[in-house]
Amino acid sequence: MLRSGLTWNTLVGMTNTPLLTRDLKAAVSGGRLEVVYQPIFRLHDWSDITSRPAAVEALSRWNHSVMGSVSPVRFIPLAERAEFLEELDRLVLAAALAQLREWHRAGHVIGLSVNASPTHFASEYVDAVLERAENLGTPGALTVEIIEAPSPQLIPDMNGALTRLREAGVVISVDDFGGGDTTLEMLEMLPIDEVKIDRTLTQRDDAEADDAVRAVVESGRAHGWRTVAEGIETIADLERSRDRGCDRGQGFLLGRPTTPDGIERMLRRAG
Ligand code: C2E
Ligand code: MG
Ligand code: MG
Fold this sequence. Notes:
With about 270 residues, the protein is an alpha/beta fold. The chain has helices spanning about 10-15, 15-30, 70-80, 85-105, 125-135, 155-165, 185-190, 200, 205-225, 235-245, 260-270, and strands spanning about 35-40, 55-65, 70, 110-115, 140-145, 170-175, 195, 225-230, 250. The radius of gyration is 19 Å and the shape is globular. It starts with 7 loop residues before the first helix and ends with a helix. One magnesium ion (MG) binds near residues 175 and 196.
């Protein structure tokens, strides 16, 4: 920690964005990003560490040679701004689907979520997902999470792409609802199957958060969306999310992001 209270990591990160972007680009092209997996559980059947995850979310990890681990909260926007997030996400998709096929071959029934920016849906990313989902044999095992609210002018084109993916059986999810600019009205305009509720709502125990989550759960029942409570860190968060009617849950209490081996152990333990 530096005297100012800033860590070295933040300081270098803040002052050297072009350098950091260059290093990130090299790490992506060189296949040096890692993928970790966080389990997602059906809330009604989660009991303890022997519970079986319904799915996992693939999350990128970058270990910089000097700065050490850099958070995706920092590097995903860099890749997006420098226009290589799609390349990054295609690599994550390929690695995570290869991993999923291994789990399926070993007899585990499990789904996979990958993250994608709204801009990907106007590009060849969609064809890459379609091709890989078809090869998977069980396209419904793949969920694509849209990480931020699309700008209104993107919505018509995006709807076409999302419809193609859904017709192929791929599950479409909207990430971090309640933590960004996405509104319930916007969700209703999109052809989607799942809504992930941001941890700020999951962790808040007040009437406003309660109303917001119950409204999206109710809308979900009407439209056939699955709801996933993110950021479950405590038993209180878990019980609150169950009471509010969320279908699935994800968070540090249920399982942290881990290596493929960590997930494998979890699946074997669940029997
Ligand atoms: P996300 O897609 O909403 O992923 C969940 C994030 O919340 C992950 O952060 C995860 O580690 C964290 N998390 C999970 N449970 C808890 C909890 O109980 N408490 C708290 N405080 N946090 C929890 P991570 O891995 O740092 O990723 C941050 C964001 O970066 C992701 O949020 C996603 O928007 C983006 N991201 C990460 N990997 C990728 C990727 O490969 N592609 C794209 N496009 N975006 C990615
Ligand atoms: Mg996500
Ligand atoms: Mg999220």
